[in-house]
């Protein structure tokens, strides 16, 4: 009988304790997987939305780190930016989280400059586009259409004003699929923010290099106090919500690791105390102390690995469920990179090693004569 099979038999002999240990570990791992995938997914969703629009640089307030930064008057800044070399287009964007339907959760409402490049990546699947910048119509994403139960020609009421749904679009970014889009003029009137935007989006020409983008960044920093030119990745990374979600994820990993290690430690220590006589017999039969250590560590790692696998499956299920509840649909898109799963399994192995190390050393240090007298 090999060591692995021997370890499995020992765990099978104590099914209740082994099951409780696996359950505790799997719950901790599930929390790690769910929170981490949602935190990464939230960041990736917003970055994908910015990248899908073809924006090269974003102008935002230096201190703005919220999902929807406070709006600012953009006219003077916009006029200065269009004069910079390689700048092809500078357009404003106004974003708000507003109630679009009484029986649906709040949705992102985007105001985009009519006829700008921001609209180019959207695919019209039903209806039509707005006729001009002053038409009181909205476009809704395919996911938003499902959530709001609206189709082309229906009406939606936003902030007490009624809009006609001109059409339904599809985007490669889930955040936009779950959003409502109108022209910037309409969004500014709706929110009573004339001339204001959350961001200015810069699109450069095809000949622009990284050095040209760096020049624009430095120019904005030096000549426009209070504003910063950054990439979509930098904008999302500095977002307060993203940073908080990542901090919560890291805290969960730490807590789950400590709890998991303590659970394994307690289980293995109790097991060693109950099997003192058995271990004494093995030592008396010639088992090496190193083999006893390997046996105990093998049992601990089997428990933690099984808990890790179950925890991953449970965590994926939790994340999938969270992103499909009404309040969260169209706002996050959890991601599950394969290397992350291997990292979680690695964490499970580490939990087994740390939790089983002391019990293993204790078991290996038993004297056969004393162990055989143990009742």
Which short descriptors sum up this protein?
single chain; two-stranded antiparallel sheet; 12 strands; 54% helix
How would the blueprint of this fold be written?
Elements: H1 3-12, H2 15-52, E1 57-61, E2 72-73, H3 75-81, E3 87-98, E4 107-112, E5 123-127, E6 137-141, H4 142-148, E7 155-158, E8 161-170, H5 174-177, E9 180-183, H6 184-190, E10 196-197, E11 199-204, H7 210-223, E12 227-230, H8 232-237, H9 240-274, H10 276-284, H11 289-323, H12 338-364, H13 368-372
Parallel strand pairs: 4-9, 6-8
Antiparallel strand pairs: 1-11, 1-12, 2-10, 3-4, 3-11, 5-8, 6-9, 7-8
Helix pairs in contact: 1-11, 2-9, 2-11, 9-11, 9-12, 11-12
What features would you describe in this structure?
It is a single chain. This protein is of the alpha+beta class. The protein has two domains: 3-46 and 241-372, no CATH class; 57-230, no CATH class. The chain has helices at residues 3-12, 15-52, 75-81, 142-148, 174-177, 184-190, 210-223, 232-237, 240-274, 276-284, 289-323, 338-364, 368-372; strands spanning 57-61, 72-73, 87-98, 107-112, 123-127, 137-141, 155-158, 161-170, 180-183, 196-197, 199-204, 227-230. Strands 1, 3, 4, 5, 6, 7, 8, 9, 11 and 12 form a ten-stranded mixed beta sheet that branches. Strands 2-10 form a two-stranded antiparallel sheet. A hairpin with an 8-residue loop joins strand 3 and strand 4 (107-112). Helix 2 crosses helix 11. The chain is elongated. The model has no long low-confidence stretch (mean pLDDT 83).
């Amino acid at each position: 009988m090999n060591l692995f099979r021997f370890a499995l038999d020992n765990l099978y002999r104590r099914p209740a304790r082994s099951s409780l240990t696996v359950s505790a570990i799997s719950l901790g791992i599930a929390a790690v997987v769910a929170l981490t995938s949602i935190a990464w997914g939230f960041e990736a969703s917003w970055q994908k939305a910015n990248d899908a629009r073809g924006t090269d640089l974003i102008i935002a307030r230096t201190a703005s780190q919220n999902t929807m930064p406070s709006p600012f008057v953009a006219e003077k800044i916009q006029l200065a930016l269009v004069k910079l070399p390689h700048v092809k287009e500078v357009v404003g964007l106004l974003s708000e989280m507003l109630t679009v339907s009484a029986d649906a959760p709040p949705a992102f409402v985007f105001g985009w400059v009519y006829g700008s490049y921001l609209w180019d990546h959207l695919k019209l699947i039903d209806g039509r586009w707005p006729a001009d910048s002053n038409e009181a119509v909205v476009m809704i994403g395919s996911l938003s259409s499902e959530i709001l139960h609206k189709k082309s020609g229906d009406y939606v009421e936003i902030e007490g004003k009624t809009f006609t749904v001109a059409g339904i679009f599809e985007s490669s970014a889930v955040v936009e699929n779950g959003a409502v889009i109108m022209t910037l003029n309409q969004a500014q009137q709706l929110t009573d923010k004339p001339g204001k935007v959350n961001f200015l989006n810069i699109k450069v020409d095809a000949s622009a290099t990284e050095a040209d983008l760096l020049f624009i960044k430095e120019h904005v920093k030096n000549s426009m106090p209070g504003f910063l030119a950054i990439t979509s990745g930098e904008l999302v990374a500095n977002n307060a919500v993203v940073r908080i979600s990542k901090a919560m994820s890291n805290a969960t990993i730490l807590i789950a690791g400590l709890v998991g290690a303590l659970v394994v430690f307690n289980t293995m220590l109790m097991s060693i105390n109950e099997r003192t006589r058995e271990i004494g017999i093995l030592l008396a039969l010639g088992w090496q102390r190193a083999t006893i250590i390997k046996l105990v560590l093998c049992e601990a790692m089997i428990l933690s690995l099984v808990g890790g696998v179950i925890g991953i499956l449970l965590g994926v299920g939790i994340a999938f469920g969270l992103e499909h509840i009404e309040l969260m649909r169209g706002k996050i898109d959890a991601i599950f990179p394969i290397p992350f799963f291997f990292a979680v399994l690695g964490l499970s192995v580490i939990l087994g090693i740390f939790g089983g190390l002391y019990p293993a050393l204790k078991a290996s240090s038993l004297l056969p004569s004393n162990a055989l007298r143990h009742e």
